[in-house]
Amino acid sequence: MDRMLYVAMSGAKQTMLAQGAVSNNIANVNTTAFHQDFSAFRAMPVYGAGLPTRVYAMAERPATDLTHGMLQSTGRDLDLAINGDGWFAVQARDGSEAYTRAGDLHLGAGGVLTNGAGLPLLGNGGPIVIPAAEKIEIGVNGGISIRPVGQAATNLAVVDRIRLVNPDARELVKGADGLMRMKSGAPVEPDASVTVSAGALESSNVNPIEALVQQITLARQFDLQIKMMKTAEENDAATTQLMRLP
Question: What b/e string do you get for 152-189 counting C-beta neighbours within 10 Å, with b at 16 or more?
Answer without folding.
Answer: eeeeeeebbbbbbbbbeeeebebeeebbbbbeeeebbe
